[in-house]
Amino acid sequence: MERLTKTGPIFTDLYELTMAQCYFAEGITDEAAFSLFVRGYPENRSYYVAAGLEEALAEINDYTFSDKDLAYLDKTGLFTDDFLDYLNRFRFTGTVRAMPEGSLFFADEPIMEVSAPIIESQLLETYLINTIGFSSLIATKAARCVHAARGRNVVDFSLRRNQGIDAGVKVARSCHIAGFAATSNVLAGKLYGIPVSGTMAHSFVSIFENEYNAFRVFSENYPDNTVLLIDTHDTIQGAENAAKIGIEMQKKGQSLAGVRLDSGDMATLSRQVRRILDDAGVTDATIFASSGFDEYKIDRVLRENAAIDAFGVGTKLGVSADAPYLDMVYKLVHFGDRDITKQSPGKAYLAGEKQVFRKIGENGMYTGDIIGAKNETIENAVPMLETIIENGKITAPLPDLADIRRYCAESIARLDETIKAIDSPAPYPVSASHNLLEKQKHMAHGSPGGGHGNNL
Amino acid sequence: MERLTKTGPIFTDLYELTMAQCYFAEGITDEAAFSLFVRGYPENRSYYVAAGLEEALAEINDYTFSDKDLAYLDKTGLFTDDFLDYLNRFRFTGTVRAMPEGSLFFADEPIMEVSAPIIESQLLETYLINTIGFSSLIATKAARCVHAARGRNVVDFSLRRNQGIDAGVKVARSCHIAGFAATSNVLAGKLYGIPVSGTMAHSFVSIFENEYNAFRVFSENYPDNTVLLIDTHDTIQGAENAAKIGIEMQKKGQSLAGVRLDSGDMATLSRQVRRILDDAGVTDATIFASSGFDEYKIDRVLRENAAIDAFGVGTKLGVSADAPYLDMVYKLVHFGDRDITKQSPGKAYLAGEKQVFRKIGENGMYTGDIIGAKNETIENAVPMLETIIENGKITAPLPDLADIRRYCAESIARLDETIKAIDSPAPYPVSASHNLLEKQKHMAHGSPGGGHGNNL
Hints:
Two copies of one chain form a homodimer. Chain A is elongated. In chain A, strand 12 (328-335) and strand 13 (338-339) form a beta hairpin. In chain A, the strands form four sheets. Chain A has a seven-stranded antiparallel beta sheet. Chain A is 38% helix and 18% strand. The first copy, chain A, folds into two domains: 8-124 and 325-398 and 432-441, nicotinate phosphoribosyltransferase, CATH 3.20.140; 140-318, Aldolase class I (TIM Barrel, Alpha-Beta Barrel). Chain A is built from 16 helices and 19 strands. The first copy, chain A, starts with 13 loop residues before the first helix and ends in a 15-residue tail after the last helix. The first copy, chain A, has helices at 14-26, 53-61, 67-76, 81-89, 118-123, 125-148, 165-177, 186-192, 202-207, 211-221, 235-251, 266-279, 295-303, 315-318, 401-413, 434-441, and strands spanning 31-38, 48-49, 95-98, 104-105, 112-117, 153-156, 182-183, 227-229, 258-261, 286-289, 310-313, 328-335, 338-339, 354-360, 366-373, 381-383, 386-390, 393-394, 430-432. Chains A and B meet through helix 1, helix 3, helix 6, helix 7 and helix 8 of A and helix 1, helix 3, helix 6, helix 7 and helix 8 of B.
């Protein structure tokens, strides 16, 4: 996988480094295990889709400070020469267990656990939450759009609204994992081999003498891929012009791929346009719709019997507008020879390294998860966390993007429809194992408590 | 300025390239001018802060396709050899006029105008909206946080919640422009020279035998920068431990920099903690607060007389959670020898290249803007758009970040308090000049209409 941006451990919050220097100065090198999980759900979410793992692993696999990084850290005046020497030799030497990309996961379940000498495992916090949190946020939103589209194609049109360059390629990749048909993002096409697609802008139509001529020029240049944007002046007139082009293309042995609606009442307009195209014999041309779509609007127009074959979704998908962040945290669960937790009301989490066990019914459906201790065995349930980094190195080849996408589709198919509902989905049953609950009773009191957010 | 991610024009929506190939094939090379502006306001916004220009200019100044980009485009099968040859030689040769970074701008006002042969000016669309839109979104949110803090320091703690790597450094830079005191983001410190700061995590406190020992170790390692996180077990007990450390530091001729609250009722707790510190004679130690802050929560706790000296803001700032995108568009306003607009209801915009004129009252306050035609003169008003790229090259050195930050603070000081209100701000008066309105009457009918969103 080609990475757009490789930063190394300098991509971190300052406190990770200042704490690390304390550990270094005090000779604290015990193994510390951290658990990466999401607390609760935003509104209308009952499951998450894991994404971003491949990029995170590539980063961990080659996690070093550059000379420039060290020169900068030196300049801050916060760090000793001894500690900077240590950072110069710094490598990640620990173990990473994680759910494969494309897995479904649920609130409070570890999606990843990292175990290493404390400086190493602590230092990964900011990067892992940023990368896996955002990629999973978007994969989840995208899965909802795909589900709402009931088998119709969905295309990522969000690039201009994404929060930065890197967000753009992460969104395209997460959408592809979650089942999108294509992206408008050319860079993502280049980096990941995701199919790219697009139509035309209103500005294109406007610079020609008239709409028909704009359509004609486009169809001559792309006889195999002509999708005409028909709402620049008036959608009905646009559909009539598109039908003319479709007829002319048929005479040349070609076929108009489709038309695109970008404004107005989508359900009504799409049926009118379908009739115009069908009456002209341009029955192969599909109707593509864009303009403010997300899973809610897709669901609504299809319930209104829109004659739409595919959707372009942009802004609201690309920033997960109804829930623009996840409460993903990276919590210390084991240090040296003891389990760690915090027990303050509302912020408690489960101590100890864990495994997530998924039960599968006879019909292949997921029936519930059990969060257990790392080394326990639960019969008739699939352990979800796999060891993927040992001694700091990736242990086995990672699945390619097509396999991740396929696995994600299979996983979503195993989830009950009620849990996938766009509005007010039912909860998925997750419990803790007896074994894990017993462990909690033996906890030292008053282990890390406190804040809900970023504890910098 | 060091750029984290240089992508060139391959960072674009596919349709920009497919339209470009049509223009190329048809020999359409007329100059086209596009206007970059935001339609309307999200709730509780009445002004915007411009940011992201420096990065955009660096990109435009060196806007080329790499061999790998061209090999990928060739592989898509969509492009002719002639067009790929053209892309291989592609450079931006046009003119860019823009408001300086740190400027305030308002709905419907062009923040930038680009004029160039149509392929060149069209191709910039996706990149400019992405980069300038997101940077300005965050600078605007950050300015609101600074305003709510009434002179207290505000620090960016959002890195883990930012939507990707690149978003992280853009957020830190936009916050710095808007007046934040520091960031936790070490990479942004390295790239831009922004002050970095941080405290400690709950995990740090939890691995020592007790809180006091954790505090002691930290203070011994950072005698000049000790801010102690006091809510791991119990905030009051934590404040008492911090007071002990403060007294011990005083005996060594040192000074405890501060304590940090990260949970609980901030107004009440902060006053209790202040009393504990003051009673112990640790009066210099400041109280730093974090946990779910944004401009609304800062405003609320200060109205409740919280004894808080500085705020760490994270998640809600870092994705602009209450308004995670701007409706920024890049619209064709002039082509060849004619002005262009669209006139469909609700989506109309002003035809022609423009200038924004800002009126300043005798007391130095901004009193209103007039959007005029590019070449008109309006007396007693400052033209906001400056030519910064000519013949494809940056014409003059750009201001450094400290100057941008200073200019932004001056600009915000010139805006009436009612317009800066956190809730339900008053509107800022913006009108169109007589000259510009006259131009609209002579428009060809039915120029580009249509969609509200991404017209791909």
